[in-house]
Amino acid sequence: MPHYSNRGLFGATAFLTVRRGGPRLWAVKRPPAPAGHRIHLSINRELTEALLVDFLRRETLRTGLKRAVVGVSGGIDSAVVLALAVKALGPRSVVGALLPYRTSSPSSLRDARQLVRRFSALVVEVDITPMVDAYFAMAPDADPRRRGNKMARERMAVLYDLSAARGALVLGTSNKTELLLGYGTIHGDLASALNPLGDLYKTQVRQLARHLGIPPRIIAKRPSADLYPGQTDEGELGFPYARLDRLLYFLVDLRGRPEEAIRLGFSRRMVASVREMIRTSQFKRRLPLIAKLSDRTPGVDFRYPRDWGV
Questions:
Q1: At a CB cut-off of 8 Å and minimum separation 6, what does 303 contact?
Q2: What is the Cα–Cα distance from 96 to 86, expressed in whole angstroms?
């Protein structure tokens, strides 16, 4: 009975066991729980870059397309995706889309313009203010969350139209922290054709950003979706990314138990809050729930790989 192992970029080791005449079985050997607060999220930056560049190039070309479009906000996540896309496809095959709203931070727009110039990508700038304000003219008392979600979806609508116009795939910029916590707008910033950052925690995206030469100012600034003045990610999430990432890695990647996390020094309130965010946002990570009426239901029984038939 042969065994094959593959050491990951960090954390667990995956094992493949092949039985004669039987199915292949994947299993993950759980590393021992770290002592104290020593939960390390260091990545092999060179290997990570190589894998993600290959992922973007291979998965784009296999669709028959040769271009990509990225919404560039001036923040670290979209900066890293832009840099990876340019390495994968070349600067003239990547469109950096700048999509400001009238309340967007002027410094964020300056940073976005600088990033597109730095990586020599094509640029499209579209002010989404007329579209968003036309809609909220009928709901002037809409709260910031509604307005923020509308802005995120308006931006994605523009990105997908640019995708159709340029023959380009939309690249996602949501990282693993955001995806696990549901910190994103469904059919807004969570939408994409390919997402190179979805298995990297925010602190790991920062490591990769330094390696890729993202300007230090962009790496250091407080993360914000820039949906309304004064908004910050950590302010809305309630905890700093550094601690969120360590807790998520322990609960998700190491499959640690809540009581073990508390013994490691995470507060009971934080553990409960993070577990609830993961649980209540599962719908954002799945296809819409379909009422099952037949033997083969899309997403339930009729499930094939994304590239089935290619």
A1: none
A2: 10
